[in-house]
Amino acid sequence: MIMLTKNDIQQLVDEGYIWIKNTISKNDVQNVLHLKFPNANSKEKQSDKLDKILSPLRKKIQNNLSKHFNCKFLKAEIWDDVDAGSKKWHNDNHYKKSDANLTVLIYCDEIKDGNTIEIRGPISEIKITPDRYHMIMINQNKKFEHKASIRDLPRRVIGMQYFCEELKWI
């Protein structure tokens, strides 16, 4: 069960991320694991079945987010590996009114040392080694950046993007 607390939400606003362990189960993602995860460095097409398969998990996440934010789900993708641009400090948002300002990442594989995601903002910087079924929410506000590093494959990730009215641009 995904249950965000007021402290989680405050961390998302102040530090730019929430790292949630032990809330996503194999049952939540088992049907996705049967799909081909496109390589992050290619232009491979996402599966036509992805939206339908992810719908129950997406609704769980959105229902929990909706207790704290006025959020709209925008899109979901799956990928393996890390694209070149994501290995450098960056922010995914282009700051248009309709762009996603919250990214939810769910890791599908046991992650080995060297497969990390780093998140930094004005008051903190952290390096996370997420494990299987860990979820990381990243605030895409201008004041936060993130980057990924990879040593070993597979590194299969489910990514969901939301626009949350309350996560204002700074």
Write the topology of this structure.
Layout: H1 6-15, E1 17-20, H2 26-29, H3 50-65, E2 71-80, E3 102-107, E4 116-120, E5 125-128, E6 135-139, E7 145-149, E8 156-164
Antiparallel strand pairs: 1-6, 2-8, 3-6, 3-8, 4-5, 4-7
Q: Give the tally of β-strands.
A: 8
State the helical fraction.
10-25%
Taking the alpha carbons of the first and last residues, their distance comes to: 32 Å
How many domains? 1
Query: SSE string, helix = H, strand = E?
Result: HEHHEEEEEEE
- Largest sheet properties: 5 strands, antiparallel
Structural class: alpha+beta
Radius of gyration: 15 Å
Total helical segments: 3
Strand content: 25-35%
**CATH H level: which superfamily?**
q2cbj1_9rhob like domain
Described by the principal axes of the CA atoms, the overall outline is globular
Unreliable spans? none
The name CATH uses for the topology is Jelly Rolls
Overall pLDDT level: 89
Placed side by side, the strands forming the largest sheet appear as 1-6-3-8-2
CATH-scheme architecture: Sandwich
Quickly name the level 1 CATH class. Answer: Mainly Beta
Please sum up the structure shown.
The protein is α+β, with helices and mostly antiparallel strands and about 170 residues long.
What this model shows, in words?
- This protein is of the alpha+beta class.
- The protein has one domain: Jelly Rolls (Sandwich), CATH 2.60.120.620.
- The protein has helices at 6-15, 26-29, 50-65, and strands at residues 17-20, 71-80, 102-107, 116-120, 125-128, 135-139, 145-149, 156-164.
- A hairpin with a 4-residue loop joins strand 4 and strand 5.
